[in-house]
Amino acid sequence: MYTPASIKARSMPTPISASLPIRTRQWLAGLFLAPALALAAAADAAGPEVAVVKAAAQAVAVGFEFDGVVEPVKQSTVSAQASGRVVQLAVTAGDRVRAGQLLATIDDRESQTGLQRSQAQVAQADAELRNAQAHARRTRELETKGFVSRAALDTAEASLKAAQAARDQAVAGQRQSALAQGFTRVTAPYDGWVRETLAQAGDLAVPGKPIVTLYAPLPLRAVVHVPMSRGAAARAASDVEVRVPGSNGGGAWIKPVQREILPVADSVAQTLEWRLELPGAVAGQLAPGQQVRVRFSGSQSVRMLVPPGAVLRRGELTAVYVAAPQGGFVLKAVRLGADHGAAGVEVVAGLRPDDQVAVDPVRAGLAGARAAR
Description:
Blueprint lengths: L3 H8 L4 H4 L2 H23 L4 E2 L1 E3 L1 E17 L2 E5 L4 E6 L6 E2 L4 E5 L2 H37 L4 H33 L2 E3 L4 E6 L6 E2 L4 E6 L4 E8 L3 H6 L2 E7 L5 E4 L3 E4 L9 E7 L2 H4 L7 E16 L5 E3 L2 E7 L5 E5 L1 E5 L5 E5 L6 E3 L2 H4 L5 E2 L2
Parallel strand pairs: 1-24
Antiparallel strand pairs: 2-23, 3-12, 3-17, 4-11, 5-7, 5-10, 6-9, 7-8, 9-11, 12-16, 13-14, 13-17, 15-16, 17-22, 18-19, 19-20, 21-22
Helix pairs in contact: 4-5
């Protein structure tokens, strides 16, 4: 006879898992628990903490910038001083030379002949001088004994003076010929580098023909052409700085040790040339012809600044990572203004006051990155 309890027990269904093998039940439990465990592990494994700074307005000196070019303070175009064929060009562009080092040799056969002729003239003048000295000495002795007149002695002494002058003239001619002979060897006037060669072996050299261009590696200067419309403002600027490019794509603003303004404007471009000599320690990192930026700073103005390293540049994209209220970072495109060096880079658009900007944009872009507290 069935009781109500036995009827209720019979009516309850048997769980499916109870009818499955133990291994199958373990596999199903792992399958359903794996996503939950993965989410829990991801929540526990937090991303890197990145330091942030607040984008705040600061008072900085504002002004204007121009492109400049680095050039050596000492540079020369070494030219020929003698006529003849270039027999040898002893250097090439990029060679380092010392003062007095041979740069080129010019055919010296003509000058060598002139030197030999002048040497012969000196020998002839020496012989004539010795003869005149002997004649004057004999005439003086004879005049003392009364055998010749005073006029004869005067003539002998005049001949001696003429022979002495002729000898001096011959010696001067020899020096001139030797100097002309030396001009066939073109040498470096100072230590430096060969920037360009302007002649080749076989070319005809004439006095004034350029042979090579040299420059001294130090000191260097930045040359910038300032429009006449900005000339007065440039002279009134409180600071003039040159931006020296860095190895990582950035750069540093440095002050020149000396500035020079040419008094004459370019009649075509209507610009004034400024020459800014660079410190030796910085000049060693630059090369002649390299482009730099020159900044003329004036009055103070309030600008929004961020650290230079906080700016992320990818092609034409310029952006920063801003801490989001709900956590993590958001990439925001920004438009930059002037670079104020250590003070920061000016942000013209894209940020709001009090935005928390990531100092390291590379780490801020990693998954799970969060602002450091």
